[in-house]
Amino acid sequence: MDWVPAWLHEWFATIDWLHFGTIPIFTAVIGWLINWTGLIMLFSPVRFRGVRVPGMRELASVLPRKIQEVPGFLQGGLGWQGIIPARAAKMGSIAVDKAIAKLGTPAEFYQQLEPDQIAQHIVTVFEPEIPEMVDRVMRTDHPKLWRDVPPRVKEAVYVRVQQQLPGIVRRVTTEIGIHIDQLLDPKIMVIDHFEKNPALVNRIFRDFGQRELNLMVNFGLLFGFVLGIPVAVLDHTFGQWWLLPVLGVFVGWITNALGMWLIFEPPEPKKFGPIRVHGLFPRRQSEAAEVYAQIIADDVITLQHIGDFLLDGPRGDRTRQMLATAMRPAIDRAAGPARAAVRVAIGSQHYDTIRESVAREAVGRTISPFKDPEFSRQQADKIRQLVARRTKELPPRDFVEMMRAAIKEDEWMLYAHGAIMGAGGGFLHLWIFGVGGGG
């Protein structure tokens, strides 16, 4: 060992190996705990849990923007909500901008659902309800006239309307298809649905990425141990009481940052000599696309939700008016040769009132089969195939940005959490083993 410098001999000779060796062990355990609790912070709880604090809302409004982003602060609460579910609406917005908008226009989604099949389903569901609907409208708007109509004539009216129904419905589904870009806003629909169902965003990560997330936790053990070695060297060299807590801050911060980098970066494979590096999530983009598409098709862009949005969403009045306008000529055709006689018998104003009432009533009935859960499930596979295909075609950087959207701006909370735990680990080691080194 003559080649070893004397100062290094002396440095090794003064090492307290128990003190020195336990530092990497401590940083390894702290690194594992940091990433494990970081996952809990990401996903739990799904809904905000905490207490309302008087004056918190007003105080939060003047604090730095980063502090305002802590879940609950701007709502006047002291507590926590998982970072991902807390940012569900943000992820929904970015998912639309980065991915769903590229996956297809509203018209493409609508055509994927095969409007002819929708029309056939509407006819099947709606046809038995026609007598009851016509009865109710006529009893409400012109009870005396309808009461005096012979049963055979009523039956003839029912049959006539039922005969016209397929044409009416085809016109309705065609009109929806023509104007779908003005009637349906996927961005609003997705944001609203994610905001109301934040657990869905958790599912997007967990259903395909649980293995990678668990690996990130285990890497925290490795990162912590490796980073703990230079910490032990510095602690032994300088022997200052404050070194371990201060270096623990850096170890905790770096451990979390490395964990996040491991999951998302780089989005495309890169080679550093013989080592090939690729983010854990983007390397499984194809599998992720299938899981993502299944969730979108089953829970977000469904025929049922499209029907809800068309009739009850922010543009529902426009949908109803458009469909009623499309139905009026069909209702006139249903009246057939008797239309002129009916107009004379009850007056043009009454006839137009009845026609408007039938049209308005029929609008809701023709859209209601959209809300049939079983039919919606049958159609979901078509949406799933479209979303999966287009998601697989996304550039890796766009895919990563879509997946990371919910946490990108809030990662500092995870890093701060790691830094605090790292400092705590340093103080704990100091308390148990005291000050080490030559100081």
How would you describe what is shown here?
It comes from Nocardioides massiliensis. This is DUF445 family protein. Keywords: Membrane, Transmembrane, Transmembrane helix. The radius of gyration is 33 Å and the shape is elongated. The chain is mainly alpha-helical. The chain has a two-stranded antiparallel ribbon. The model has no long low-confidence stretch (mean pLDDT about 75). The chain is built from 22 helices and four strands. A hairpin with a 2-residue loop joins strand 3 and strand 4. Helix 2 (about 15-45) packs across helix 14, helix 6 (about 90-105) runs antiparallel to helix 12 (about 185-195) and helix 13 packs antiparallel against helix 14.
Summary, kept brief:
The chain has helices at residues 6-13, 17-43, 56-60, 65-68, 83-86, 88-103, 106-112, 115-126, 130-141, 143-148, 151-183, 186-196, 199-238, 243-264, 285-300, 303-312, 316-335, 339-346, 348-367, 373-393, 396-404, 411-433, and strands spanning 49-52, 77-80, 270-272, 275-277. The chain has 439 residues and is mostly helical.
